[in-house]
Write a structure and sequence with these properties.
With about 200 residues, this protein is mostly helical. The chain has a domain of about 100 residues. The chain is about 80% helix and about 0% strand. The protein is built from seven helices and no strands. Helix 1 crosses helix 3, helix 2 packs across helix 3 and helix 3 runs antiparallel to helix 4. The longest helix has about 45 residues.
């Protein structure tokens, strides 16, 4: 009996986890559609946009820079008018230039972009690779920060899961302690049968 309750609790917890994940994916997709509509409105209104605007508009919709770019690419794909396509092509080209530095902290991104531009203008083939070691080190540093943040989130989740398990364990022990024993059930059944026989 107790095993049945535990199995039901595990099934419920897995169902809740899957439901939250599906909701999160749908919510993210909905936000991207909203950003696409927002971008289309701004383009139709002839508002000049730059790569930073795309990231900032994405943040307003609670989207990452990568998802913001994906929304822009979808708008770019859907454009049918030549003038709009030309404007978006220039914007997409600017966004793609920033993409290699996407994982870089905002404080250094503009400096790296400027340095990359100056190095491409120098004409020396070797200059094109000068920033590679710098970006590699900064990327690793950024990954370490992200891992640290992810580790904190995992620790909090593990703590919460431990608390939930503890509560379930205490409830199960209390239920098992208060549940009637086999002899009590047998006595109750025999009493009911004897009452029915006597009547």
């Amino acid at each position: 009996m107790l095993g049945g309750y535990m199995s039901a609790l595990i099934v419920i917890m897995i169902t809740i986890f899957i439901s939250v994940w599906v909701w999160s994916e749908r919510h993210n997709s909905k936000k991207m559609v909203q950003l696409q509509a927002d971008l289309k409105e701004k383009i139709n209104a002839s508002i000049e946009l730059d790569p930073k605007d795309i990231v900032l508009l994405g943040r307003a919709h609670f989207l990452s820079p990568a998802n913001s770019r994906t929304a822009l690419y979808r708008v770019y794909q859907d454009v049918k008018e030549p003038e709009e396509f030309k404007k978006l092509k220039a914007l997409v080209s600017e966004v793609e230039k920033e993409e290699p530095f996407d994982t870089m902290p905002d404080e250094v991104k503009s400096s790296l972009l400027r340095m990359a531009y100056l190095l491409t203008q120098s004409g020396e083939e070797s200059d094109k690779h000068v920033l590679t070691p710098v970006t590699n080190i900064l990327t690793k540093y950024n990954e370490l920060l992200e891992e640290q943040t992810a580790s904190k989130v995992k620790t909090n989740r593990a703590y919460l899961a431990t608390l939930v398990s503890l509560v379930i364990g205490v409830v199960s022990i209390v239920y098992a302690y208060n549940a009637p024993s086999a002899s009590d059930i047998a006595a109750e059944v025999s009493q009911i049968m004897s009452e029915e026989t006597g009547s």
